[in-house]
């Protein structure tokens, strides 16, 4: 008879893993906060400010969600982003994403334990995933990758348990997790039919009904986003071909991998290698063979679909190039997409531990040490490609954001309206702690378009912050503005211009 205070044997490892994941997430968050790199990514800055704009804007409300970026990240930041301190520091984005990291780690652990029937293999999977420095960095900043991985892990757990129990609860869980995926990243749309097939293959009867019902329910998320885009712009495909879509940003310019399968594979696989590390990639390749031998290949194959999506996306004309520092044009752009290789290789590595479970006591720690060896042998953040990408690409933006925020703080604007170009410039307001409701930008719809079309009649703001040559700068060249301050940080970065209106 066990003591009533004892934990059930099956619960203890899960609780221990959960606690370890929380500790790791807190340590990663503290490191990022101390080093001031929570908002190095320009996208992280924008995600946080979009969320803030839902409640703090000249025109707050649903319209602030926009049409290109999917809404889940912005919504989960809402409970915290209203706090000025959490917004200014970026912690309003750190906390919800870190929770998603913990959820992902727990669900990967539970799914791996069910698939491989051994706690040792599940610990290998979780450790290989959670101790990767690129995952840890993305786990504590307001970016969508780890939120997406949380959805992936829930889908995996639901599919595995549905296959074993046939309980409708797990199919419903898979549907909800698919909504989370589809409203976090567009990769989730690609996965819908494959999740449906996985569930249908696991159903003991009514396989076709299972497939049809799942796809019908899961497709509600993409259909909602079509309707959302149509409601805001009159174009249901605005996220794909609108003026702020990736295709428009790319301006049709060619990039490595466009209509070239071999180049797309080469660039993406290089990004995977940089994100996951060569040791984990090697373990993943060996583990995939073991998973195939053990007939536990379905989760590994499912995780392989996201890398396939990125290769296909690069090959098509969707405007999603990946640049890595070792290949032309020798720069950093979207290298973080290679993070999808980490859970894939981690899950495959678990099959190695399961295959040789009799030696799990020494093999499992050895597999984890091998997986993290690139980071242990070279404990230098310069080797963490996701951090490095965000650091390199934000040098100029962080410089002029800091200078402009300092200038604004020295010239009080309380009670004045400030017009600003959208995007990176909004970071000036966050750093200066200026409420977004006192600003005017493209997210304010008709007010903005009237102001830039006839600034002599409809521009209400005393101040303007813009980048040289952008829409606002061109609109105000004829306006009655004086005291223009130009901030130059690099010959490669547009000058930032701060202007104050001449009073009549």
Word description of this protein:
This protein is mainly alpha-helical. The chain has two domains: 381 residues, no CATH class; 107 residues, no CATH class. 63% of the residues lie in helices and 5% in strands. It is built from 26 helices and five strands. β4 and β5 form a beta hairpin. The radius of gyration is 24 Å and the shape is globular. The termini are far apart.
Relevant terms:
five-stranded mixed beta sheet; 26 helices; 5 strands; 504 residues; mainly alpha
* Biggest sheet layout: 5 strands, mixed
Distance between the termini: 87 Å
The structural domain count equals: 2
User: Can you count the helices?
Assistant: 26
The low-confidence parts are 1-8
Share of helix among residues? Answer: 55-70%
Secondary structure tally: strands: 5
Overall average residue pLDDT: 92
Q: Which value, in Å, is the CA radius of gyration?
A: 24 Å
Spatial order of the strands in the main sheet? 2-1-3-5-4
User: From the helix content, strand content and strand pairing, which structural class follows?
Assistant: mainly alpha
**Content of β-strand:** under 5%
Give the CA-based shape.
globular
């Amino acid at each position: 008879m066990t003591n009533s205070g004892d934990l059930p044997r099956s619960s203890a490892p899960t609780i221990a893993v959960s606690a370890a994941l929380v500790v790791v997430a807190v340590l990663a968050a503290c490191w990022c906060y101390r080093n001031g790199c929570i908002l190095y990514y320009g996208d992280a800055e924008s995600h946080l400010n979009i969320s803030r704009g839902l409640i703090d804007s000249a025109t707050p409300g649903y319209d602030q969600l926009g049409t290109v970026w999917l809404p889940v990240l912005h919504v989960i930041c809402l409970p915290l982003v209203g706090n000025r301190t959490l917004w200014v520091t970026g912690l309003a984005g750190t906390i919800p994403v870190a929770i998603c990291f913990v959820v992902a780690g727990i669900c990967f652990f539970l799914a791996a334990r069910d698939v491989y029937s051994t706690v040792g293999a599940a610990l290998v999977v979780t450790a290989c995933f959670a101790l990767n420095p690129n995952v840890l960095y993305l786990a504590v900043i307001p970016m969508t990758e780890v939120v997406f991985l949380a959805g992936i892990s829930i889908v995996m757990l639901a599919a595995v348990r549905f296959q074993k129990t046939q309980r409708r609860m797990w199919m419903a869980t898979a549907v909800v997790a698919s909504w989370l995926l589809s409203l976090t990243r567009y990769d989730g749309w690609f996965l819908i039919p494959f999740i449906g097939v996985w569930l249908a293959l696991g159903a003991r009867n009514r396989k076709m009904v299972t497939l049809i019902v799942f796809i019908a329910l899961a497709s509600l998320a993409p259909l909602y986003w079509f309707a959302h885009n149509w409601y805001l712009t009159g174009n249901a495909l605005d996220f794909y071909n609108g003026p702020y879509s990736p295709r428009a940003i790319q301006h049709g310019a060619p990039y490595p991998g466009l209509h070239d399968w071999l180049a797309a594979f080469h660039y993406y696989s290089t990004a995977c290698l940089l994100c996951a590390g060569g040791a984990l990639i090697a373990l993943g390749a060996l583990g995939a063979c073991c998973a195939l031998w053990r007939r536990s290949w379905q989760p590994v194959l499912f995780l392989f679909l996201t890398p396939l999506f990125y290769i296909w996306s690069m090959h098509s004309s969707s405007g999603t190039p990946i640049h890595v520092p070792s290949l032309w044009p020798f720069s950093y752009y979207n290298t973080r997409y290679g993070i999808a290789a980490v859970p894939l290789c981690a899950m495959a590595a678990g099959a190695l531990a399961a295959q040789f479970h009799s030696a799990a006591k020494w093999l499992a720690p050895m597999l984890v040490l091998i997986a993290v060896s690139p980071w242990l042998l070279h404990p230098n953040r310069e080797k963490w490609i996701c951090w490095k990408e965000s650091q390199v690409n934000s040098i100029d933006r962080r410089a002029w954001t800091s200078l402009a925020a300092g200038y604004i703080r020295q010239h009080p604007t309380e009670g004045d309206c400030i017009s600003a170009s959208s995007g990176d410039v909004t970071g000036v307001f966050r750093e200066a702690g200026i409420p977004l409701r006192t600003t005017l930008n493209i997210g304010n719809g008709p007010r903005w378009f009237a102001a830039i079309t006839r600034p002599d009649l409809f521009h209400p703001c005393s101040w303007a912050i813009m980048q040289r040559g952008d829409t606002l700068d061109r609109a105000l060249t004829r306006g009655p503005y004086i005291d223009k301050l130009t901030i130059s940080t690099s010959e490669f970065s547009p000058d930032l211009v701060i202007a104050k209106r001449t009073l009549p």
